[in-house]
Amino acid sequence: MDELLARATHGVDPDAPGAFWQIFFNLLNMLPWAAMFWWSLLFVAVGALLGSWRGRLFEGIVWAWVLGPIGWIVLLLRPRREPPHRPPPLPR
User: Fold this and answer.
1) Are residues 41 and 76 in the same domain?
2) pTM to 2 decimals?
3) Pair 36, 57 in one domain
4) Which residues cross the membrane (predicted)?
5) Is the Cα torsion angle 24, 25, 26, 27 positive or negative in sign?
6) Each residue's pLDDT tens digit in the chain (92 positions)?
7) How far apart, in whole angstroms, are the C-alpha atoms of residue 85 and residue 2?
8) 76 and 57 in a common domain
9) Which of 52, 55, 50, 39 is nearest to 76 (CA)?
């Protein structure tokens, strides 16, 4: 934990007015952005697959984009979309 704090506060004067933002940006620079992007893309692709299977493609994409794998559970707990009711065919 000390190493993480040392990396986050490297080159920051704690008494400076913008110290919070400098530490915040240092922490953001430590995140693995490429891995997060590819995992998010995978979550959305699986959400789209589950959404198309349940008849809710757009909803599956949105839930997976917002909540990740938890969105898959939300999507699977919702009822399937029923096909539209059509009137019976007319007699000949």
Assistant:
1) yes
2) 0.68
3) yes
4) 30-50, 57-77
5) positive
6) 888 888 888 888 888 898 989 999 999 999 999 999 999 999 999 999 999 998 899 999 999 999 999 999 999 998 877 777 888 888 88
7) 64
8) yes
9) 50
Residue 22: which H helix or E strand, with range?
helix 19-29
Task: HSE, CB side, 13 Å, CA atoms: give it for residue 82.
Answer: 3
Residue 46 in tokens: 């699986």
Contacts of 69 (CB under 8 A, 6+ apart): 43, 46
* Domain match, 47 and 21 both: no
Are the C-beta atoms of residues 72 and 63 closer than 8 Å to each other? yes
Instruction: Report whether 12 contacts 19 (CB < 8 A).
Output: yes
Residue 14 lies in a domain: yes
Residue 13 sits in which domain range?
1-31
